[in-house]
Design goal:
2 domains, homodimer, 8 helices, alpha+beta, elongated, 25% strand, 5-stranded antiparallel beta sheet, DNA-binding
Chain lengths: 232, 232
Amino acid sequence: MMEVESQLFDCNKCAFKTISCHYIGDDEFEIIRQLSVQLQFEKGETIVKQGSKSTHLIFLHKGILKFTYHNQSGKNFIMTIVAGPKLLGGANLFFKNTNIFSLVAIEKCDICLIDERAFKNTLVKHGNYLLILFEKTIEMFQSSIFNFISLAHQQVNGRIADILIYLSEEVYKNQGYEFTLSRKEIAEFAACSHENVITTLSKLNKEGTITLVGKKIIINDLNKLKEISKRS
Amino acid sequence: MMEVESQLFDCNKCAFKTISCHYIGDDEFEIIRQLSVQLQFEKGETIVKQGSKSTHLIFLHKGILKFTYHNQSGKNFIMTIVAGPKLLGGANLFFKNTNIFSLVAIEKCDICLIDERAFKNTLVKHGNYLLILFEKTIEMFQSSIFNFISLAHQQVNGRIADILIYLSEEVYKNQGYEFTLSRKEIAEFAACSHENVITTLSKLNKEGTITLVGKKIIINDLNKLKEISKRS
DNA sequence: CCTTTAATATTAAATATTTCATATTTAATT
DNA sequence: AATTAAATATGAAATATTTAATATTAAAGG
């Protein structure tokens, strides 16, 4: 983690400020801003640790991170993967005083730690603002719920197909993308063994449905993936 | 579904009113109440249908219902099961204009349909009220997320053990309970075949960990169930 | 009361998945 | 450049799970 002397990004151009100031005054935002800290995390660094106390909301300004959960037996599990800009708070941090998930950077992440108390004070004064945040939070939940549904009644190749589609459409927003996730991480997302991921990806690669070159993946036949997802 | 002439339950003694009137005035609640309708649903009846438009929040006054999802291939899946009194809205109905899950009664349910618009109008005026509802909604999400986690990295017997514990602790609130769910429904909750459920329950019954008598189930050895959940 | 249907139960065969063993490639470190 | 560790890859054996076939029991309808 790197604390930043000069600002990482300009608060006046930040998406969080833009949304916020539709509902609250610049002066009110300034109070929140002054209690906020910008930080940068490298790939692999833990931003929030499962089990720790939650005292801040997190605005993911730029970058990609994963929500992870690990159980007593030491198994890791990826709940969802999100790309900035996005406010992370409702799920993990808002009301539970200990975090139920960890947040770990998958790519370099520019984030902003927002003091929860100052933020809540402002929120309760602006119902419409709170309503919008509520909505955004629910949306994020839904994206992970759809992964769970896929996971619950699809077989491994269908789940992996779904993950490839999700990453393409919601995270990297491109048909081809630099694949910063290891096979092991995809396994933690798809809830299967990493061998299974490797086998499935190799097969898709050989078929030509996707192309794997080094760390890069290109989805050649999106319909085929959707078909696999449907029928498995 | 039965529309009720005389009131099913007294609005003045309703838990929803009690919570609400900590934050809003009786006169404001009265406006919401007048736009609300009491309904009774029998076991098996669909209260809200996946895909339909959502125009109301639902307060589950009394009873037990399931959140279900069915995919294109016709497979059903139970997301979670909840017992009243509980406000259902944030997840399914609040912001999406079509419902992404169905709600189906597992036991006789007394519910109250609350006009969404009237409710929202009041909410935005009372930040603290909205914040509490936000919190309750997130809590409900979390309970289903823990089921998903169990589902994601446990084997079938561990998942079934978890479901038995969940039903005992969160839904029926008793070590023994009248089991209104069929084996098929447990299978839809545990995301496995119903044969698997039957085999697992029979085994637990023979071992003495649980006792099955007709529709009744008694958990004799909670620790054993928790152990199964841990090690699978 | 009889008939039909649905739910519960059990087993064997088929399939899916994980685990294990081992090899190769890639990346990181000295 | 050599060494080590990590990631990727593959196949066989072990295990878990589903499917299918069939029987029994309980519930529902005429």
